């Protein structure tokens, strides 16, 4: 990156930011690609959401409702939450940025775990804050390591729970311990993008801690289980003072008229969440089992993806190249400090079969010693 000698200059830390790299979506020379690189939900968008989106075509000259009251009421009804404590965003990324800009900034520090979601690094640095990463244990955020990194400059702790790309979850009791030991002025942001998929008794997406105090926020998204990543809809559930801050700083029309309509309809699609979560539970286990049978280490996951661990970057790269040759796109996670791993979304039954079959064929061509 070269800047003209007398040209405009951003703040210096901006040039330390590496642009977010999303999952690939096309392969040159391949007609049918199977995209398992972005955790988009196995079934696409709910049919009622698609219809609601199309039906908005004649209205798109109108500005959206800036308060997204219809969408907030629908979210509140679905998840038993007070709509006044919800703010919607253009994806939850939008809200993560706003939180960093509002609570971070020059001279402050933001904490995330080593393999945490990369938007925290980008948005935190953008705000001017110093982003500190803390070591994990077994690819899981470590509460004690986070607490040890707290300094008087700390303003925000981000915890993706479950985390992307590792799939690991911190049990509710540990999150409570984190909150109790963090100084009260530190905002704890629980990013629960995969909450709807989690099926374990020791989990809480964040509602309890948000309700219990004035310093915890939960973020959620329509991009995963509701299959609306292309519409950009996320939301935060937060204490009144944080809601007030977000409403001051967010874009006034940050959720489009079509996105609001599609989101409301998606929530009304009968049985969608249940069907999607049940499919994910079943096929995540099938995918995990088949990859393990092929000789690959697979980390336990509570999300709609698994992290396959090939032991070495060379082995992961070779597997990735083999997938590409079969038109299958998965997510390389080198940028997350996991060059020996690939993240694979749990797709349809057919997609799970295809990737498991490809992995078996790949492993049969290798004389790698397995390390399961
Ligand atoms: C996918 C994802 C998000 C956000 O997605 P949006 O599409 O911006 O709502 C946030 N956090 C994690 C951990 C994710 O995996």
Describe the structure.
The longest helix has 22 residues, at 272-293. Strands 2-10-9-8-7-3-4 form a seven-stranded mixed sheet, with helices on both faces. A four-stranded antiparallel sheet has the order 11-12-15-14, covered by helices on one side. Strands 1-13 form a two-stranded parallel ribbon. The termini are far apart. It is globular and about 55 Å long. It is of the alpha/beta class. The chain has helices at residues 47-55, 69-79, 91-103, 119-127, 143-148, 172-181, 207-212, 240-249, 257-268, 272-293, 313-325, 349-364, and strands spanning 34-35, 86-89, 109-113, 130-134, 136-137, 140-141, 154-160, 187-191, 216-221, 234-237, 297-299, 305-309, 328-329, 331-332, 341-345. The protein contains twelve helices and 15 strands. It has two domains: 19-44 and 272-364, Alpha-Beta Complex (Aspartate Aminotransferase, domain 1); 47-268, Type I PLP-dependent aspartate aminotransferase-like (Major domain) (Aspartate Aminotransferase, domain 2), CATH 3.40.640. Helix 4 links the parallel strand 3 (109-113) and strand 4 (130-134). The site of pyridoxal-5'-phosphate has 13 residues, from helix 3. Pyridoxal-5'-phosphate binds at residues 91-93, 117, 160, 164, 191, 193, 221, 223-224, 229, 234.
């Amino acid at each position: 990156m070269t800047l003209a000698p007398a040209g405009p200059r951003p703040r210096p830390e901006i040039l330390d930011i590496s642009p977010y790299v999303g999952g690939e979506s096309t392969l040159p020379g391949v007609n049918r690609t199977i995209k398992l690189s972005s955790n988009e939900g196995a079934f696409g968008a709910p049919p009622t959401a698609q219809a609601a989106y199309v039906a908005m075509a004649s209205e798109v000259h109108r500005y959206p409702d800036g308060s997204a009251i219809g969408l907030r009421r629908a979210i509140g009804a679905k998840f038993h939450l007070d709509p006044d404590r919800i703010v919607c965003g253009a994806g939850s990324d939008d809200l993560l940025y706003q939180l960093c800009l509002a609570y971070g900034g020059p001279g402050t520090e933001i904490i995330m775990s080593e393999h945490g979601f990369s938007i925290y690094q980008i948005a935190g640095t953008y705000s001017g804050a110093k982003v500190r990463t803390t070591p994990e244990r077994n690819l899981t955020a470590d509460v004690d390591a986070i607490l040890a990194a707290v300094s008087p400059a700390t303003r925000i702790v981000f915890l993706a729970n479950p985390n992307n790309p590792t799939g690991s979850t911190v049990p509710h009791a540990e999150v409570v311990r984190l909150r109790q030991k963090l100084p009260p002025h530190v905002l704890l942001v629980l990013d629960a993008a995969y909450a709807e998929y989690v099926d374990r008794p020791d989990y809480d997406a964040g509602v309890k801690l948000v309700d219990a105090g004035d310093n915890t926020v939960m973020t959620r998204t329509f991009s995963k289980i509701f299959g609306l990543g292309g519409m950009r809809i996320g939301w935060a559930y937060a204490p009144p003072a944080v809601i007030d801050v977000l409403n001051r700083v967010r874009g006034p029309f940050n959720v489009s008229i079509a996105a609001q309509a599609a989101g409301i309809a998606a929530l009304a699609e009968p049985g969608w969440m249940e069907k999607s979560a049940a499919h994910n539970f079943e096929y995540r286990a099938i995918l995990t089992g088949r990859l393990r049978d092929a000789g690959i280490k697979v980390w336990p996951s509570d999300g709609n993806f698994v992290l396959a661990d090939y032991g070495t970057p060379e082995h992961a790269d070779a597997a990735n190249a083999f997938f590409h040759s079969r038109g299958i796109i998965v997510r390389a996670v080198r940028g997350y400090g996991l060059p020996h791993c690939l993240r694979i979304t749990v797709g349809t039954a057919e997609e799970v079969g295809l990737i498991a079959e490809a992995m078996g064929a790949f492993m049969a061509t290798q004389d790698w010693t397995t390390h399961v």
